[in-house]
Write a structure and sequence with these properties.
- By secondary structure, the chain is mainly alpha-helical.
- It is 61% helix and 5% strand.
- The chain contains 14 helices and four strands.
- The two termini are 34 Å apart.
């Protein structure tokens, strides 16, 4: 779903240039139908040009192990590389094409994550989810998402708010990519919900209106992903998903639904696994008007 996270942290990351082409085109592991243009970074989109995602595919060679790979050549243009490749002026194994593949991958993922209600959103999701050797990319996305969360937490502990938020934004995007590649893996949905919950309830702005917009927007996103994750029995019974869902529903003013989530948590094995949360839920329920479910 569209995110307040992107709007507040890096609205320029929405800026993509869509390149039309004649007939179907394959670039690295990505396959585009004739009627679907290829996204590359707009000159003002620094996030889509930064090397935070590297796409493994047959013939590429080793993908950088760290969070960042080699810096992108400042003079690199995705649009020029695309024209050179499709025009037959460069071969598919050149570094320029590898950089083009990574930029397209970042653009597809950004658009799939945040481009709802914009053209080619569903196509971007499908192209990314249909990548060849998706298992290798899935593992890479989860590994790098964890690394970004660790980096964001480190920055936050050292009062570097801007850097922290940038890392959490990338973690959110990387987790979304993992979900697209494996939509039946509920743990990824739960991880997204937890990340958004933590951001909604631990961060604030000096401006009260910005803080409220931040918390409400992220709580709504967190609610969305937590609800999806709870289709899985293990998530419902072994994690505090119901507790987190109730907290976010309270923020959104959905008090009856919050009570329902809290009661579900208390009735689940998770209440025994997380005693402090059980105590907090009981305290919250005592303050909310409700009737115990039969």
């Amino acid at each position: 779903m569209a995110s307040v996270l992107q709007d507040l942290i890096d609205p320029d990351s929405k800026k993509l240039t869509w390149l039309e082409h004649d007939g179907p085109v394959t670039i690295g592991p990505f396959q585009f139908a004739a009627n679907v243009p290829v996204p590359v970074a707009d000159p003002g989109n620094s996030l889509a040009r930064a090397p935070w995602l590297h796409v493994p595919y047959r013939g590429r060679g080793p993908v950088p192990a760290g969070l960042e790979g080699d810096p992108v050549d400042e003079g690199f243009s995705g649009q020029e590389a695309f024209r050179a490749l499709t025009g037959g002026h460069i071969s598919a194994d050149t570094r320029e094409v590898i950089e083009l593949v990574d930029e397209i991958g970042r653009c597809l993922l950004l658009h799939a994550s945040f481009g709802q209600e914009e053209p080619f959103h569903e196509e971007a999701e499908q192209i990314f989810s249909n990548i060849e050797d998706g298992a290798a990319l899935f593992d890479l996305l989860l590994r790098r998402a964890k690394g970004r969360i660790d980096e964001g937490t480190h920055y936050s502990e050292h009062n570097k708010g801007e850097e922290s938020l940038g890392e959490f934004l990338l973690a959110r995007i990387l987790l979304q990519g993992a979900h697209l590649l494996s939509p039946t893996t509920p743990g990824v949905l739960y991880d997204i919900g937890v990340l958004l919950h933590d951001l909604a309830h631990r961060l604030s702005f000096e401006n009260e209106k910005d803080s409220e917009r931040w918390q409400v927007g992220l709580s709504n996103e967190s609610r969305f992903y937590l609800q999806l994750s709870m289709a899985d029995k293990e998530i419902r019974e072994e994690t505090p998903a119901s507790y987190l869902l109730g907290v976010n529903r309270e923020v959104l003013g959905q008090l009856e639904e919050a009570v329902e989530a809290y009661e579900r948590f208390l009735a689940s094995p998770a209440a025994r696994l997380y005693p402090p949360m059980r105590v907090e839920v009981e305290s919250r329920l005592a303050k909310l008007p409700h009737q115990k479910s039969e």
